[in-house]
Amino acid sequence: MTEQSNPLKILFYVQHLLGIGHLKRTATLARNMMRTGFDVTVVSGGHEIDVDLGGARLIQLPATRATDLYFKVLVDEEGQQIDDEWRQKRANMLLDIYHEQKPDILITELFPFGRRQMRFELLPMLEAASKDSPRPLIISSVRDILVAQKKPGRNDEMLGLVETYFDYVMVHGDPELISLDKTFPHTERIRDKIFYTGYVVDHTGVKGGPEAPGAGEVIVSSGGGAVGTNLLKSAMKARTLSSAKDLTWRMMVGATVETEIFDELAALAPDGVIVQRARPDFTTLLMNCALSISQGGYNTVMETLHAKCRAVIVPYAGGLETEQTLRARLLAEKGVLQIADEEGLTPEILAAKVDEALNGPPARAEIDVNGGAKTIKLLQKWTDKGI
User: Fold this and answer.
1) What is the CA radius of gyration of the chain?
2) CA 239 → CA 236, 293, 314, distances in Å?
3) At what angle do helices 371-382 and 21-35 cross, to 10 degrees?
């Protein structure tokens, strides 16, 4: 974007409830936006996580998180179930933030294709924005695969909200792998609003030599949420059963996992296994590792493909989750990774998958992972700003 005295202002709303994948993708996009001259404010409604926003402002709302896999119960920072008074207070805060920021572009992460629980604050803000003068560009930022809807009318509700409030829907995926219509039946109705960016990937990982972080190791990660402890425990036992038994296995424990669970995992670790919290140089570890074992979250899978490392994916399939399994299967069909089902996972099964991955080719899928750059180009195009 050309140098200007008053850079365009972006207000980017994100709410993570279980893991931190949504916040990580938002952070990657925010860094790209800041580098190209946008003035970005990220409003986060989840628990505080230390992420690199590239200089963007972070406004932290009173945090809420889910206590169950179905996202039915939301609690505040003290673990108390949120009530109508809490909702009204946060809705007022978000509306005040919108009016104070007066953004040129308003972006909601996932909504209205998810985060239905946050309608109490998002709908008042969208209503205000749609009536504002000048009216901001209103955009939905959504991943490649939506959670399957089991209740009648939910997809109709999403469609209605897009038609009422949103100018564009940025799908952070590659239609050559999977297009939005595969998980959103009304895609054709909003075809003119949908634009694919490719996958949003953190490209900061550095490829190094034998002394580089993660070099020759097996990197085991379970994402940023509380799920995945079973994967880490299984991996510890799988090491000695696999052909990678002489390699260092590094267990990356999510940032939001309780201290008690972390301590338990650290105590279980045998020789040759390192247990540590998630690191900011995770993408560098992937660039240099012998093998990645992980759950099938959007960010980790795409970072693995970008790093072109061998991989075993154990897709999280709890609650209503269908996204990770579908994405992993599509990639497995391309021959770029191995899948081990979460249900019934044993050290023996995982060890066998490790051997298959190590004996197979590294991940080299021809998938668009330039989502950060393409997102910027779309924003510049929509706001008539040159590169």
Assistant:
1) 21
2) 6, 12, 16
3) 60
**What is the rounded (10 degree) CA torsion for 241, 282, 32, 9?**
110
Contact 367, 176 (CB under 8 A): yes
Q: State the average pLDDT over residues 309-336.
A: 84
CB 115 within 8 A of CB 44: no
Residue 228: predicted pLDDT: 80
CATH topology for 9-201+370-382? Rossmann fold (3.40.50)
Q: Determine the Cα–Cα distance for residues 328 and 315; give it in Å rounded to an integer.
A: 7
Please report, rounded to a whole number, the percentage of residues in the chain having pLDDT higher than 70.
94
d(CA 132, CA 106): 12
Distance of CA 193 to the CA centre of its chain: 22
| Selection from 377, 380, 387 nearest residue 8 by Cα | 380
* Helix/strand/coil percent split, the chain, to 5: 40, 15, 45
Helix (H) or strand (E) holding 25: helix 21-35
Give 7's DSSP letter: P
Peptide bond into 347 cis (omega under 30): no
Query: Boundaries of CATH 3.40.50.2000 in the chain?
Result: 9-201+370-382, 218-359
Beta strands in 249-379 (DSSP E): 249-253, 273-277, 291-294, 311-313, 338-339
Cβ-based burial of 133 (10 A; exposed 0-12, middle 13-18, buried ≥19): exposed
- DSSP one-letter string for 162-206: HHHH-SEEEEES-TTT--GGGT-TTGGGGGGGEEE----------
Q: Which CATH superfamily is domain 218-359 in?
A: Glycogen Phosphorylase B; (3.40.50.2000)
CA distance 19 to 13: 16
- pLDDT band at residue 322 using 50, 70 and 90 as cut-offs: confident
